[in-house]
Amino acid sequence: MRRVLPFLLALLVAPVWAGEPGASVRHRGYDFRPVTTFVNGFVGASQEDLLDGAVLVVMQNGRPIYQHHFGSYVGTGPKVPIASASKLLSALVIERLVENGTMHWDDTVADYFGTDYPDADPETGAITLGQLFSHTSGMTVVNNPCLTYAYRNMSMDKCALSILGTPLSWTPGTLFAYGENSMQVAGAMAQRITGKTWAQLLESELTTPLGLARTDYGLNDDGTPFSNPIIAGGARTVLPDYARVVQMLLQRGMLDGERYLASTSIAEMQLDQTHGVPADPESDPYPEAYGYGYGQWRNVVDCDGVATRISSTGILGTSPWVDYDNGIAAVFLTYKQTLNPQLREDLRQLWDVVADVIGAPVGCTP
């Protein structure tokens, strides 16, 4: 086993994000200069239409082996919106409820809503919780108006009822269509069965057990949580928080010696829960992926179809991923984000650049 540099040992008790802006953590045996060069190619305040700032951390064996701040990203940075990287966090909340028997992935909309929603029809009522979280529910990818900031404090239940009252665009279970409506319905189902708000579920099922100090789904000026947070795209977080999430996934449900989820639950989330149905080309940001699990993309699979690299990248650039082949967990967190059509491809290439470095150690670096 490679020896860790002495100052890295201190990081066992220090935050993994410690360090001055631009500082890198290096590990004996790896040369991360290609990673730094690659990211500098699409991050920097002086580069028009590119990301203004970002931070990347790569972890192995529970320790950071690389951390670098790019552009204007300073220190740990403020909480930033992470768009679709929220989906993985929300899926973990639901998986915890499934694991403890409160919910089941084959539960249906009708099991929770009955005929409460307008123009209730059997096809909508038969949609399962699993279909809601794997984007195969048949619901339109056009966001319901209740999934906007203006409706952040309506009830999530009312928002879900509005979504359920909208005609389906496809027969459930026949098409993968990536969007936000279906997950909002699932969140309302979780609220109905537990009697808790989404903010309370977030605390009991995610932030407290994983020790996430600065993750939320939006707060009002008085500090109270939004009552209708967008659970598929409304989370905010900081680097150390999401770093703990991906580290737990890399360790198959363990973190700090404690069991957060069973390894079988992690495996269930990473199966192709679309069951191979075709994808809607207009809404599929990763057509090259090997299907979609619960809240995460299956970017690389082995010969048995088991996911060996998963991710949950958001449109604003935040990209958490886990590479089981190389034994690494990583988070690329953006700051002062800019929508950029090239960004999705840049991030996909970043995963490969990091993998190349880890897969081909070159000995000690200065």
Automatic annotation (TrEMBL):
Domain Beta-lactamase-related: 52-354
Transmembrane segments: none
Signal peptide: 1-18
Record's protein name: Beta-lactamase family protein
A UniProt-annotated Pfam family: Beta-lactamase
This protein's UniProt keywords: Signal
SUPFAM superfamilies, per database record: beta-lactamase/transpeptidase-like (SSF56601)
Top-level division of the source organism's lineage: Bacteria
Keyword Signal: yes
Organism field: Cognatiluteimonas sedimenti
